[in-house]
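In keeping with the milestone schedule agreed at the kick-off meeting, the structural modelling team has produced records for the first pair of proteins. Each record is given below as a sequence line and a structure-token line. The laboratory manager (R.T.) confirmed that both were archived under the project's standard naming scheme.
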Amino acid sequence: MEITVRPALEPDLPALLALHRELNPDDAPLDAESAAAVWRCIAAQRGRTVLVAEARGVVVGTADCLVMPNLTRGGRGILFVENVVVAAAGRRRGVGRCLLEAVVRLGDEAGCYKVQLLAADDAYVHTFYAACGFEPLAQGFRRYLAPGA
């Protein structure tokens, strides 16, 4: 299966929303108007790239990337990765690996000193990321905020 990775465009929004429903099936879906407004904010954000992976012209995966400027490491930025998801039908076919290779290239081209992501507490996911060259070097912390806070 030939896989192409490219930056997402607004017409990809329905496919992105479908992938995000697979990632977070308990989330309430965004209505079309809200989703379009969020997309416009994402598209306008400097250093932000949402990647999509396509197979046979169908979007089968995505990764959301943000380059954060940095005052350490000689001013080299950090590329943060979120919302990595491959459609169930596209898993174990190289889609995720192609996405992560594109993520690393994006960070390299932006002059970043590292690519960082958090992973679900899932041995399969950890094994996958390790196979793609990522190392579990730190413990992450997060604090969820209430809606509207």
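The second protein of the pair:
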Amino acid sequence: MTMQTATPLGKTEKKTTVPITIKRIELFVFPVIAPEPGFRVCLRLTTGVGHDWGELFIKKCEKPKDWVRFGSVLLRFIGPFQIEDMLSENPDISVKDERIYALFLSAAQHSKCPSYLEMDHHDHVEEGLFFNQAISYISLF
């Protein structure tokens, strides 16, 4: 019995990925008391299609020495960016803290399928509170 496949054997389909354009990366750092003392780090990613968020909780004993240095490693991702590039390459070996890459990647993956209504509403409601309550704010653009 013979069968014909949709893709001829030996030929693989090339996946075309559309890069997202990252215009701005913002980090908001908040103190957290419960369930364990530490910090809530929120990353707002501004792209050509809107905004998206990532969130990370860091224990007080695992706090980076410098929040600006912690976030500034993401500066190289401003501009056209393909998530697949980040997945295929190893994070900068001079950066010892890989949590910032995981935070960035979670926000970038969500930006591929934005929900404009939710994001716009979320941004206007949360932004003022974030600036008032954050103990540190880093903006990369």
